[in-house]
Design a protein that fits this description.
The protein is α/β, with parallel strands linked by helices. The protein contains seven helices and seven strands, in the order βαβαβαβαβαβαβα. It has a seven-stranded parallel beta sheet with strand order 4-3-2-1-5-6-7, sandwiched between helices.
């Protein structure tokens, strides 16, 4: 049975200097989610993969909600063309708000901020605070080393083997909707095996 996904939190980069394959993937993801009737919650930026994600969704008439810290708005980093741009006090409130508004998480390739957000979502899931699907979009194998490191945490007994079910990996953008809809339910008793 497919799960209902109304809005997806998407973590994406703001770099203007990455290879175009990353911004192309972000634009395709935005358009694909919008065409499936799935709204996007993202960091509110107007450049890089963030901007491309928003533009792709807007081109398909999709819902786009940005969540941006006040200091980033002061730097004029916010996207002026999206439907809603929520300005919050700091990065911590931003991350919590994005997860609270979403039915799933998708991480596009990115730098330390994207990786930190993704790992926080996985940590929340491990602690039973977030029950929803988490998908990494591994454009050209981008996430293969992170996945291997997470697998190693299980092999070295830092996490339980059940924790390997907390995320899935999309090799291409087009795989994302099926992975979201068909993600296995997360154990409601996750806190019972959060610490091993």
């Amino acid at each position: 049975m497919e799960r209902e996904i109304r809005r997806v939190c998407v973590y994406a980069a703001s770099s203007r200097q990455t290879d175009s394959k990353y911004t192309d993937a972000a634009r395709r993801l935005g358009g694909l989610l919008a065409s499936e009737g799935i709204g996007i919650i993202y960091g509110g930026g107007k450049v890089g993969s963030m901007g491309a994600l928003a533009e792709g969704a807007l081109e398909e008439g999709g819902e786009v909600i940005g969540v941006i810290p006040r200091f980033m708005m002061d730097l004029e980093w916010g996207h002026p063309g999206i439907g809603e741009l929520r300005v919050v006090e700091d990065i911590h409130v931003r991350k919590r708000t994005m997860l609270e508004l979403s039915d799933a998480v998708v991480a596009l390739p990115g730098a330390s901020g994207t990786l930190e957000e993704l790992l926080e979502a996985i940590t929340w899931k491990r602690l039973g605070l977030y029950q929803n699907p988490v998908v990494m979009v591994s454009v050209d194998g981008f996430y293969q080393h992170l996945v291997r490191m997470l697998e190693q945490t299980v092999e070295q007994h830092f996490m339980d083997p059940r924790h390997l079910q907390m995320w899935s990996v999309a090799e291409k953008v087009e795989d994302v909707p099926d992975l979201l809809w068909n993600a296995p339910p997360w154990d409601p008793d996750a806190l019972d095996f959060a610490a091993i």
